[in-house]
Fold this protein.
Amino acid sequence: MKQLDLGKEKIGKLLLSFSVPCIISLVVNALYNMVDQIFIGWGVGYLGNGATNVIFPITVLCMSFALMLGDGASAYLSLKLGENKKEEAKKGVGNAITASVIISLILCAIILIFLPKLVTLFGGTDAIRQFALDYGYIIAIGIPFMMVATTLNSIIRADGSPKYAMLSMVSGAILNIILDPIAIFKFGMGVQGAAIATVASQILNFTINIIYLKKFKSITLTKESFKVKFKQVSKIATLGISSFITQIAIVFVLTVENTLYNKYGAVSKYGAEIPITVHGIVMKINMILTSIILGIAAGSQPIVGYNYGAKKYDRVKQTLKIVLIVSTIISAISFILFQTIPEQLIGMFGSGDELYNEFACYAFRIFLMLTLCNGVQIATGIFFQAIGKPSKSAFITLSRQILFFIPGAIILSKFYNVMGVLYAGPLADGLAFAIAVTLLIIEMRKLNGVSEKEMKNDDKIGEDTKPTENVIITINREYGSGGRYVGELLSKKLGLKLYDKDLITMVSNESGLSASYIEQNEQKVKDKLLMNFNSQYYNNLTNDDNLFIAETNAIKEIAKKGPCIIIGRCADYVLKDEKNVFKIFLYSDDENKVKRAVKYYGLDEKDALKQINKINKARQNHYNHYTGQNWKDLDYYDFTINVDKFGVEKTAEMIANIVTKNVQYK
């Protein structure tokens, strides 16, 4: 963002700059999952591939913990660096790494002990079972290396070294490609050879990332950093919980698919093994093309967010248009390939009998019949994430799998047996597409109706009096206490610039988040489970975290410019180390809060108190979450005032008198 002007640079150039790294990372990761199956298919046969599909949910389950700690630690690192708390930042990173080691060893032990039962749980049939056990026991040994490497990958990106993280991933993938044919064909080790190649690549990835521990740019890790503190680990896990839930959802879907194929495939002419094997291969091929679309859409996120926040809606619409067109073209290419050459696509993974090839053709042509719609769904989901509407984004992202596919597969399989699972694919794609398009059309109509007038410039104070010292007044206030009006009166009395609503524009430009999102969601902590469903593919911070960091930076810049008054936004905490900072808390009784809220904010009198308490609870949660202090701890403030006792005018006068007695004015 510092090198490219998101508000002026050509959209095409910006998309290339942001999307290409995303595409490379996602495609490499998708290929990583495919390599084993290609060589196993030729060296072992489709039963070997079925085994890898049965073990895959286990690796995704382990990955969910690694991503939770990695994404959570990267968010924690960025937040603490933004607060200039390097000691806490390095303890957070160290704790995440230690926790990853401990959890990975526990999971490794559990998998080794209970692997036979897990194979049955995830759809392993009698024919596949031994292959799955041979493959799974070796993969389990590599779990600690895989999990720690994954955790470190996220942290390394957050430390400002995305190229190093990518190098680690690519190096592991290349080694896997080299070792697979050697182990499978030269030494005749079958699925065990493929598993050894995978574990070796994970060890390489792990080693490269461990080397980085001494190369951190932002912090210096010490032995003390790695001592586990439950409170910090809990905080990190909370920040990364969205990534965990996303991966667990995948495990759930895979389990349902394999179970249905096992149950209904067994009574079909295909048997259980062919559907389980073929479906896993089909989805991994589709993952390559989906990764390209996802990379393009994720790359558009900062462009859309920045211009939406800057009210440059034409650029927002232009970016969205390009993303939708390119995504649709890629989806169309995918559709053509899946419908015309399914035999050649499945043939890359080895040969099979007539029934194997027949079901593969059905899987491509039926299950992926409406893959043409997927580009729009993915692009729309990330668009809503970019403009600060995570609930809609998460709904679009999860609707296909959780809301439509799983229920559809369960119901249709009862009527059409194994084919019912295939029919559930286009059903889910069509419904998810309809929802995405409907929400997008509604949003575009709103966008077209939004006024694009420039926000008023309130820089002029209009008073001759100025403090000779850099005095800053921070006001935390209960909703309905009249605190904002007190701030306006103080601004006039003391000749200080008041920062409240105009902070929104500054923060929007800093964070790339939309002004409407900031206005609706600042000083709140909500949708923490939803924010990462799309943004995790591009960065490791939720919009809430990005917003807090941007507000922190904006407040620090404001403090440097000169004397001022700042309403809310944890300014008292952000500037606690500055001189001449007056920390004020204003409150009021319920009756008067309701009267003000009804009169000035238009709340319904019957529901006003409930709404007021809800807003104040949100403010308190936000403050406590990001400062670690109690918003209502009155001992923390320099002075607290019950506005009802004195009135807003008298309250402002009292504060002004206290400030002028302690700070020199000219």
User: Anything to note?
Assistant: The chain has three domains: 1-32+268-453, 44-261, 472-662. Strands lie at 472-477, 497-499, 564-567, 581-587, 639-642. Residues 44-261 form one domain.
